[in-house]
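From the pipeline queue, job 12 of 40. The input is one protein chain; the requested action is below.

Action: predict structure.
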Amino acid sequence: MQLKQLLIALTICICFFSCKDDKKQDEAPLQTIVEPESIKEFGFVLEDYIVKRDTIKSGDSFGEILERNNIGYPRIFNIAEKIKDSFNIRNLKAGKPYTLLCAKDSLQTPECFIYQPNSIDYVVIKFADTIVTYKEKKPISLVQKEASGIVMNNLSETMEQQGLPYELINDMSDIYAWTIDFFRLQKGDRFKIVYKQRFIEDSIPAGIESIDAAYFKHKDEPFYAFNFEVDSTKNISDYFDENTKSLRRTFLKAPVQFSRISSRYNLNRRIKYYGYKLRPHKGTDFAAPIGTEILATANGTVTESTRRGGNGKYVKIKHNGTYSTQYLHMKAQNVKKGDFVKQGDVIGWVGMTGNTGGPHVCYRFWKNGKQVDPFKEKLPAAESIPDSLKTNYTEFIKPLKIQLDNIQFNDNTIDIPSEEETLTSKIQ
């Protein structure tokens, strides 16, 4: 009897603890299942479609692309007719990407064609039910960045070694083109930059938006530059120094970027080829590869765009009643007589037409009808900030100047002594 009671008690205990364990399992916290976020691009949820991506091939057309993807020509013609006022399908360029959003049916029938002429803009052509086309831009974000460096050979090489965008190199050259001779930079010249870079969808670099502020030390002389809007209605901005003076000059120092002077203005030049006879050189030669852009050094009207004798193909610009400039030996001109050009406009490309031993542009400069050396002319500066904006400008640049001054020089190449070290060594 006792054994039977013992077995009953043991059975009850087993059931009790078993039920307790089951209850614990029932009360275990539920796992949270995170559904994957839908991938959106061009304003569409991509998982709703079969997505096909490709690039426009040479000879491709809008019709051929759709025809290859099971859309007949009668419908293609109808789509093209409906969208012709909004988008010209003949503008598709080889090498540019496109995306087809196709239905999840057996034929994978296209319902939308998306064309990207560049990394930011895109054109959407929807034709699932009704035919609709529109243009959009990918979301762009601006990120402020800083950069600095010490020049070893030239500005371009120094900035390239640091992996800085090439567009930033050109922008720096433009800012200081009127105040610093980039053909005569010295080892140890240094720079700092505060700039904004564009990013597509927060990740893909999409060029430089602007340089907000810059500092360049050349021959131990500091040059500050601050980007300031002087006319908000016309969206006009320019670069000024810390004293509200414009960095711009009436004329650029050179008609080509990142070139070198191969021959200077010299009225006493003698050439061995001609038996050392006196053959004055009334221009400044800038050596550059064939095809390099030639820029107008100031605003003006084109008075000549032709080809003649040893000058080859050339352009001449009258800037005002005092100054004119001429650009010789072009591969081709980009302007015609009577055109008005602005400072920095591309007026042609470097070539070897006429009498020349190598690719270069011969830059000639007239003052009151007489050819002179532009590097010896004291050319007038552009206007400074209007008095009405000087107080705003002074307040605007304060934080930017502090930011510039706090940037440390990025020197990964050489150990150039500081000014204090140089002064100490001179005293010793």
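Job complete. The two ends are 113 Å apart (CA to CA).
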